Amino acid sequence: xxxxxxxxxxxxxxxxxxxxxxxxxxxxxxxxxxxxxxxxxxxxxxxxxxxxxxxxxxxxxxxxxxxxxxxxxxxxxxxxxxxxxxxxxxxxxxxxxxxxxxxxxxxxxxxxxxxxxxxxxxxxxxxxxxxxxxxxxxxxxxxxxxxxxxxxxxxxxx
Length: 158
Hints:
Mean pLDDT: 78
Low-confidence stretches: 122-158
Shape: globular
Order of helices and strands: HHHEEE
Largest sheet: 3 strands, antiparallel
Number of domains: 1
Strand content: 5-15%
Strand order of the largest sheet: 1-2-3
Radius of gyration: 16 Å
């Protein structure tokens, strides 16, 4: 999944991050903070915007410090959802001695740089719930994109 860094990352993401930095429009989800911090500095700054802009303009083909996607177990609760970058959160789940089906191994996939959530099929929403064993439409990968109810309102003025 460490390919196509540009998928879903647009100038609209840059605008949303800039508006967040300026205090005009705060992020609504902890996953937006994680998606915006492409340099993994632990904060969302203009340096993140510069890296995203370089990717959008095809000056760079990837983000140097981070993979294209990050994953967090779906049930994870952030201690402070308005400042999730200040805490350590799990990105791996291990299963030992598997002898049957694992039905509760859902992850939230965060597409780095994509604070608007457009990476899969152009759907709005800052996060993608990854579930097994379904497949993402058209990719052949065993993951399915869904959105939280709060995040399904159509976007306007885009």
